[in-house]
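User:
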Amino acid sequence: MTRGPGEVVVTGVGLALPGADTPGALLRRTACPVTGPAAEPFDTAARIGRRGHRYKDRATRLALCAALDALRNAQLIPSDGEEMTVPGDTVGVVASSNLGNLDTACLTAAAIAERSAVDLSPMSLPNASSNVIASWVAIRHGLRGPNLMLCNGATSGLDAVHWGATLVAAGRVRRAVVIGVETHNAVVEDLLGRSADELLDGAAALVVEGARWAEARGARAAAALGRYERRAGLSGCVEALLPGGAAPGVWFTPERYAEGPAGDGAVAGAVTDGPAGAVPVPESVPRYDVTSAVGRASGALGVLQCAAAIGWLARAEAGAHAETGAGRRDAGPEAAGSQAAGPEAGPGAGAGSGTAFAAGAGAGAAPGPGSVLASRQALITSGDDTADAVAGLLLSPTPDRCHPHPSRAPLISMECSR
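Assistant: Predicted structure:
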């Protein structure tokens, strides 16, 4: 086992969404949902071209777009090319999608049942594999680290972020691309009983990386991954993340979370786990539901929430600089898109709260080395109040720890397959 990377940070953000191409735009769109005609569907060919993608399903093409955006934003791919600037062995892929290739799988099964396997196209058949999204991202960019595909229900997106960070913290890779993607089509609409305009057609991606590896290559971090929890109920999950009733700076709620007139919170159709009138997060904390802007997101939700939270951290930093009169040195995730500039760090004090699988300092305690006040952290929750179906994650600001001319860190043998 190699020595750990210290904290795990987010160094790149990528989006493939209609009407929102940066974390800040996603946050604004979530805060003030746009009325009127829906935005045009995201054009995948404009970002990755058409060549070689004729037989790939739409979910895979969206994932490729978001992943390319995130890798460029993390400075792992130059803005004018697609070649990785780090060894492919040091990069893993974790993708989350519950419904991404459902249409291919169902149509393939129907064709076999009605006729025979002889009628299937050998070009489209690979799309029926459940791990096709994660695999194509790895193949496209030569990423030879661990490759995982999660289809884990409402918590799948946050689970993917957790497992990406776990791979990094365990020393399996130095960094991982985490992707959440969903699309809508006739099969998905029929299964969910919802129209296309209620469902997400897009993708989000993050690059999670060991802090010391990011620093070694001169990349700036947009956020530090804090505690991750998975519990049977929302209140228990929030209490585990923020003990003592500490209030976070912002709360990204589960999909279509609603608080009743008495203050009792519930996800539509779910059974709450707390006492009547209980509110898992103080009412003074701002709430965001990203699905109000992009549609019901299923397995992509957690990754989208993290992207929006990074937009919130960048805005908080801008406000802090405005109050103190300090100037901002360079652009960050607000400029994430097809730019190569690294993400902007969050508010400058504090160093995050540990990795996404280990608890850090108590959120309600006085800040010390390696801790961040709860009020400066973004709380993210996905799932509903059914058994073992709520996941939560904290994102914290990170300081600028990168040197102007960093030295290159040596490779560790366990990270490489060759």
